[in-house]
Structures are given as C-alpha cells and as structure tokens.
Specification:
The chain has two domains: 2-109, SPOUT methyltransferase, trefoil knot domain (Alpha/beta knot, 3-Layer(aba) Sandwich); 123-201, 3-Layer(aba) Sandwich (Alpha/beta knot), CATH 3.40.1280.10. The chain is α/β, with parallel strands linked by helices and 202 residues long. The protein starts with a strand and ends with a helix. It has six helices and ten strands; from the N terminus they run E-H-E-E-E-E-H-E-E-H-E-H-E-H-E-H.
C-alpha cells in the first residue's frame, strides 16, 4: 500500500466551492484536485493500492481532512472539475473526529495533519517527508530495501511549515528527495509512483 498525505494550507473547509475559481476563492483547491488525479489515475485504470489524504486549513472551519481510497473509488474522473465536485460533496457534510464516507471511496473527518501522520506511524508504517534537501530516493528505495507499507508526506505551494517539519523530525520521519528542484506536489506524486513501479517490476 502506498499512502500520500498532503497538508493544504489554504484549501477551503466548507462546501461553498466555486468550480469556476478553484485556485482563488477555494484556496488552491485546484492543487488538491491535481494531486488526487496524480495519485490514482492511470490510462484507462485506477491505482487500487493507493490512499491519498488532504488536510485542509483554509476558511471557514479548519481543519478538515479528506481520505481517498483507490480500491473503493467509483465514478470519479481525472479532470479537476469532476474531482472538485466530489470534494464539494464531502466538504458539505458535518465533520466529526472519525472518518465518515461521503461517496464511494471518499471519506471526511475533523482531523489535524499531525493526527493522520501519527495514526500511520502507530500502524508501523515508514514515514517519508518529501523534501528537496533529503536523502536521494534512489539510495533509499531499491528491490532489496523496498517496503510495501509506506507513507509520503508533502506540502502544497506554501510547504508544511517549520513547526510541522519539527514534528516530523521528532517522530522519526525520513527526509527523502526526488529532485534538487522544488516541484509541484502533484508532480512529486507521479515521480514517486514511477520509481516504485519500476522497483516492483524488477
């Protein structure tokens, strides 16, 4: 299982989603949609071994966490508008501290970014923080060292912030780099999938 956790600093936390202005009035919800598309969609198929989380800290009621489960997703298309419609439905719900299903494979909860990371940590999963100054991913992932249950943490265009970086260091998350350049979050997801795909085929 591959899991990705995105901290989205400005993404909207209500169902008042303007589908014509995802980047502006919705707090870069377009980026969240692109990450969902990159996490799951293949040509004529879905990645069913992937879970994606986005934790929204925008107005009016942060935080709200969304969880997308590849093995359960139905009727979602890879375009931003389609994904945004399903996110809108999830954000319209009342959020509590446990996951509730909005539509097939899409869940919502009142959870902090750190809560979700710690849940994965307690399950014994290895946590990687995608950072351009981390250890090259080629040195951490190869057929001899590859672990199946792994979690990748990444930030949006703002990043995850100093306090959450410190938190990740304190819980033993490993910094891993896929490029010496700063990349878009959705591109990072595609690159990570590609690297792991090639390892799994060896």
């Amino acid at each position: 299982m591959r899991e990705f956790i995105l901290k989205s600093n400005k993404a909207i936390t209500s169902g008042d989603v303007n589908l014509k202005d995802l980047p502006g009035s919705c707090g870069r919800l377009d980026l969240v949609c692109r990450c969902v598309s990159s996490a799951f969609f293949l040509s004529h198929d879905l990645r069913r071994d992937t879970i994606f989380y986005s934790v929204h800290y925008g107005s009016p009621n942060p935080p709200v966490a969304l969880k997308f489960v590849g093995s359960e997703l139905k009727r979602v298309s890879p375009d931003e508008r389609s994904i945004a419609l399903f996110i809108k439905k999830a954000l319209e719900k009342e959020h509590i501290c446990i996951w509730k299903e909005s539509t097939s494979g899409i869940y919502h909860a009142k959870k902090e970014f750190r809560d979700i990371v710690l849940e994965r940590k307690k399950e014994g999963k290895r946590i990687f923080y995608l950072h351009k100054d981390g250890e090259p991913i080629e040195e951490l992932f190869n057929p001899a060292k590859y672990e199946k249950n792994i979690v990748f943490v990444l930030g949006d265009h703002i990043g995850i912030g100093e306090e959450d970086e410190k938190f990740l260091d304190e819980i033993g998350a490993e910094r891993v780099s896929i490029s010496p350049l700063e990349l878009h979050a959705n591109h990072c997801i595609v690159i990570v999938h590609n690297i792991i795909d090639k390892i799994c085929m060896i």
